[in-house]
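Appendix B. One record, verbatim.
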Amino acid sequence: MIKEELKLKEALIIEGGNKLKGVLEVSGAKNAALPNMAATLLTDEEVVIDNIPDLLDIETMKNLLNTIGVQINHIKDKAYSFKLNEVKSLKAPYELVSKMRASILVLGPMLAKFGYAEVSLPGGCSIGTRPVDLHLKALEKMGAEITIEHGYIKASAPKGLKGAHIFFDKITVTGTENIMMAATLAEGKTIIENAALEPEVVDLAVMLRKMGANIKGEGTHRIEIEGVKSLKGTYHRVIPDRIEAGTFAVLSALTGGNIVIKNYPSHYLEYVNEVLENIGIHIVKISESEVVVKRDDILKPVNIETREYPLFPTDLQAQFMTLLCFANGVSEITENI
């Protein structure tokens, strides 16, 4: 009956009540792959990025880069090559940007490389404070001239970007990434204060350094970038997705199954693992990159507050809310992001 009612709609039909067993492999982190892909705009040479997850946002970024002029080839499995052959457009259109807010990540690289960029606002022509304002103010401090017309950010730097001392009033992951990419080709030194600490920011810095960028301080609140004349091609493997890994851990605990989780990034999930331990769920390493999940018979309630990394991530809030429904007592989750 349910299947008949849903046959004309997209739906997930779940038959519950079974313990899960087997092996789950954690994918590459989408939130690392997207800025890594955007960074390929900074060089004329070929960049190979491995461990890219198969997701709709990734396809949107591929389409966006292709619109600009990046040739993308599938090499094997999850590896792709990116090469900027011929600039076709310096405009990131609304049809693509509206599908994915992370499209703003092409703004910094385009402006640094070509001296001009047009990027649609994620919400079109909106009034009031925009999340991208932190990006725009930082780029203006680096010498960019920015206007907003008909829902598009129009940014130009005909004489190139200049190094600047940037202080973010609020921690911003994509803002940190955008300015870090722009600063790699800027003249002089750029200092980013109150920078985001996320592993995805660190992964981007690692890739940029392989391309020849002069970056230090990633993983702290102060990042320093000394601009260089040009960047080169490289090979880079995307880090595992810590949110997917945490989701798999909760899934295993909920079903009481026996799941081996491969590529589990324990070093990115130290706080989450501690919360799981307090609930009565134990992450047990069986090899350098593999874990199994063990649980106590009775799960304990906990109070959780979402915070910026390295504390509890907002993207795991829903999963833990479900998990805590089975705890013996009252738990409280506070959203702060």
